[in-house]
Amino acid sequence: MKNFRERFGEALEPRTLLAANPIISEFQTNNVETVTDGHGFHSNWIEVSNPSDEPINLRDWHLTDSSETLAKWSFPSVEIAPNAALIVFASGYPASAEEELATNFKLDNSDSYLALVHPGGVTVEQEFRDFPKQLADVSFGVFNNDLDAPVFFHTPTPGSANGPTAAPTPRIKTESGVFVDELEIITASDAGMEVRYTLDGSTPTVESNLYTGPFVLNSSAMIHAVAFDPTGDSKLEPSTPAAANFIAVSSSLADDNVRYIVLVECK
After folding, report:
1. pTM of the predicted protein model
2. Domains of the chain, each with CATH number or no CATH
3. How far apart are CA 260 and CA 249, in angstroms?
């Protein structure tokens, strides 16, 4: 297993802070299985990145979950290499080792404020106000250093470059199979995505059938379903397709009342 330095960044000797400023590039408030801290806990975490071509020392910069206490937690002398990132666990626990960084506050999914503050504890460099709650193992942050348009990342990348990210793949719960007479198809999207589907095995596009409610099959079909961001945000690519095949047979060839229920959902 890689050690903390190899996975999440390396603490180096202090250097002079250069003109370029760090950013909060990603954070997670509902870490169920994404990563563990040095204590073995699935603590929530904050990724701080250096978007410049020069190293940045974070000594005396601050992280906070309170707009009224800007200097709540201070960085030690730790350097981020150019175009690199490090992870700070927001667990409220002391760090497990010298190389690990951990805040004195716990970042929860019910929180709605996070900020990176300049040395001195007065000037806010970057803040997230009223940020949305996260589903399990989904993160939130910026793509291509666009601070004005934060997005969800359905595949978190702690310590690595973000995105581009894709919509969550729909999941067909019922296995492919045979049905008699009619088959009810039920779809859902609990991630706020738009589900488009086809019945001929082709890959759905934004022009394909839009799922708006349960529908019934009365003939064989090769169902492919793809999730799209309904906002049309170019940062969120369409999902990979989910697929299932269903074959209609005559009632004379099968037991009565044979029926398959299919549930498609976005996680």
Report:
1. 0.63
2. 1-163 (2.60.40), 170-266 (2.60.40)
3. 12
